[in-house]
Design a protein that fits this description.
Helix content of chain A: 10-25%
Strand order of the largest sheet of chain B: 5-4-3-6-8-7
Strand content of chain A: 25-35%
Largest sheet of chain B: 6 strands, mixed
Order of helices and strands of chain B: EEHEHEHEHHHEHHEEHHHHEEHHH
Structural class of chain B: alpha/beta
Number of strands of chain A: 7
Largest sheet of chain A: 5 strands, mixed
Radius of gyration of chain A: 13 Å
Strand content of chain B: 5-15%
Structural class of chain A: mainly beta
Distance between the termini of chain B: 72 Å
Shape of chain B: globular
Oligomer: heterodimer
Radius of gyration of chain B: 21 Å
Largest interface: A-B, 24 and 35 residues
Strand order of the largest sheet of chain A: 2-1-7-5-6
Distance between the termini of chain A: 39 Å
């Protein structure tokens, strides 16, 4: 398994049992499928997301307006959903979709 | 993907891809370009002069918290010579506003700025909770927006400031441009991209974050570990702006520069001569003294509707006529206290046609 630290901010924690920080263990890469960020997003939906899927996922990726950081770097620099997870990675999901 | 080096300093690890430019930059360079761009926005628009008293509209949310932080930083770094205040409006929304006000109080400590909180309850006698229970969840944003606009001006008058700053960002302004196009509101379309609005009888109001992407504001707050409150207003899910926002986010995903490009398109719109002629000239509300396009300002109109139990009727001009047909407002209805501009604004303006009504 791959051990990860996942954090939610900007209001997203409300969808995940109102908990900002989670420790997760995902399965290792399977033969045909790598454990990448897209996999993690669906894994979170299936295992930790308590309500309102449409507020987290849209069109097989995170809803537009949700920022994703991988080890404190913009996921756009790491290939977005195709980034392959490593043991000990820290992933942060921050929603920007609220009043300022 | 291999770790990338910052495109600007060529030294540290890149942590962000800027939506505006596509550049991949490191944390320190990001802080610097973000702050400097706001500084450039401010200086190019000549927003301030030394000694100005400036109120930052603070809700405790991401934009106003980052705005307070950046204004404090720039004021010190470039010696603007400004006196900064925090001004917060309590609309009376349980579970939303009361929590975010706690954040503003923490901001006051963190940024060492005087804080003034003004509530709808003390000003109008109605909280948003009470308004929504009377009129439901359609049009409630209209009430809130109209009441908040006046409340900010009144708060600024109490603080005796020259200038109000709000945290509206590039995404907000692009959404507004789209909304005005979708609703055919040409008059607003010609005005909504101005960085600074100033009428003759109003306090200047500016948006230093006009060109700052919401994504960058959130990243700035995250990396600087700034304390802000983040929940959707419980009454807003059906707001019309939601449609524009969803559309804009999709546009941004396909082409990140779309947001700044929409603003540039919006800046190119200007009311033509024939449209200008149909706009009503500005007067003063005969009940409370605030600026108005009609005899009664919108806030007094909405308040009268609430007090007379016909709130839904007060929202459009046509419905206002129906309200008037019911007869004049009964005496002793709650009214908004008289509005006086702060001295600094008054001394710049002389209007012989205005005579304020006698004190009640």
């Amino acid at each position: 398994t791959i051990s990860l630290k996942v954090e939610f901010g900007g209001g997203l924690e409300l969808l995940f049992s109102n908990q900002r920080s989670h420790r997760s263990s995902t399965p290792d890469a399977e033969i045909f499928k790598a454990v990448d960020l897209t996999y993690l997003i669906f894994w979170l939906r299936d295992n930790l997301l308590k309500e309102r899927v449409e507020l987290f996922i849209e069109n097989a990726t995170v809803r537009p307006g949700i920022l994703v950081l991988v080890n404190d770097a913009d996921w756009e620099l790491e290939g977005e959903g195709d980034y392959e997870l490593k043991d000990g990675d820290e992933i942060v999901f921050i929603s920007t979709l609220h009043g300022g | 993907m291999p770790p990338r080096t910052c495109a600007l300093c060529d030294d540290a690890r890149a942590i962000l891809k800027r939506p505006k430019t596509g550049q991949q930059i490191c944390k320190e360079c990001f802080f610097y370009v973000f702050e400097t761009e706001v500084h450039n926005t401010i200086t190019e628009a000549h927003l301030f002069k030394r000694g100005d008293r400036v109120a930052i509209g603070a809700s405790g949310g991401k934009d106003s918290t980052v705005l307070a932080h950046v204004m404090k930083t720039l004021n010190e770094r470039y010696g603007y010579g400004l006196e900064l205040f925090l001004l917060s409006i309590d609309e009376g929304i349980t579970g939303y506003r009361d929590d975010s006000l706690e954040t503003v109080k923490r901001n006051q400590q963190q940024y060492e700025m005087p804080l003034k909180i003004l509530s709808y309850d003390e000003l109008y006698g109605w909280t948003m909770d009470a308004i929504v229970s009377q009129i439901g969840k359609k049009n409630n944003c209209t009430f809130c927006g109209v009441f908040r606009r006046q409340a900010l001006d009144r708060g600024a008058a109490i603080l005796n400031v020259d200038h109000i700053l709000t945290g509206h960002n590039a995404d907000d302004i692009a959404e507004t441009v789209l909304m005005n196009i979708m609703r055919g509101d040409i008059a607003r379309l010609g005005r909504c991209t101005s960085i600074c609005t100033q009428g003759e009888d109003t306090i200047k109001r500016s948006k230093p974050f006009k060109y700052a992407y919401e994504k960058e504001i959130v990243m700035y707050a995250y990396f600087k570990k700034l304390d802000y409150f983040s929940t959707e207003c419980i009454y807003s899910p059906d707001a019309y702006r939601g449609h524009a926002r969803v559309f804009l986010k999709d546009l941004e995903a396909a082409r990140p520069s779309a947001i700044i490009d929409i603003i540039h398109s919006g800046e190119a719109f200007e009311a033509t001569g024939s449209v200008k002629a149909t706009q009503k000239s500005q007067q003063t509300c005969k009940r409370c003294g605030y600026m108005s396009s009609n005899e009664l300002c919108k806030a007094c109109t909405l308040l009268e509707g609430l007090e007379r139990g016909m709130a839904a009727a007060a929202v459009t001009d046509r419905a206002r006529a129906k309200l008037d047909a019911e007869g004049p407002a009964p005496a002793h209805l709650r009214q908004i206290p008289l509005f006086r501009l702060p001295e600094t604004v008054q001394s710049n303006h002389v209007d012989p046609s205005v005579s304020l009504p006698a004190q009640r």
